[in-house]
């Protein structure tokens, strides 16, 4: 006898792919992930978070289970993120930025007793000018506050401010993104320096000599604003600079050019500081160059934070203490 099919019971639907139980996740765990992605090292992450290395290793193990992915793999060069980890990182940064904005509550802030940790991003030049007065102020009025200065990362500048990994970015002042705030700190201009006894120069510099003599430049200078300004001005004339001598940082330049026919271009305030220490002459650059306008940038979500306001005031005070560059040398 043929049996009639049974009706009324739907076929079971296959289970959807599982996803991490985000409602049970620890926010600290996500913050640990971001630091791991930044440092690519368990030991350095532990140092930054002020926890033990086993605690960071345990957190990484939990994260691997949570996201069902190795996330970070060991290599000779350190830990390397997986593709999944890179995808997660951007989403976690946005998530934590939203969480911080939602959970923010105004807290009383007393710099004399506060133990907050602020992270600034600044080029060597700005660090050289601003950090000494800032650190002196901290030691006198806020001895427990820690300030960490990091090298600029232009490609991730907005991301670092948005995530809170950097509190304040000091850089050339331009119109910021919509969710960023900014203020002008100081102005300067670009000049050229040479040995006081340079064989061809005596207080003036022609375009021909500027192009003919090699320049001592910090490695990567063509990627920062002052380097790009020089390179673009020369390119507009259809000219080329002589192949440069590359050094690691600005601070070795006055020693590099002394006793040689090398030239160097750098901000006037820095040039005057070097001229007080080394036998060098300061010369006008024979190019049409814009003035340097340096400013500070921060994310909108930090704008009303009392501690952040205090930090901005300290940085601004240090900038206002700099001597304004004259119109002519």
UniProtKB/TrEMBL annotation:
Upper taxonomic lineage: Bacteria, Pseudomonadati, Pseudomonadota, Betaproteobacteria, Burkholderiales
Domain HTH lysR-type residue range list: 25-82
Name of the molecule in the record: Probable LysR-family transcription regulator
Residues in the signal sequence: none
UniProt-listed PROSITE patterns: HTH_LYSR
Pfam families: HTH_1 (PF00126), LysR_substrate (PF03466)
GO MF annotations in UniProt: DNA binding; DNA-binding transcription factor activity
Family, per entry: Belongs to the LysR transcriptional regulatory family.
Keyword annotations: DNA-binding, Transcription, Transcription regulation
Transcription in keyword set: yes
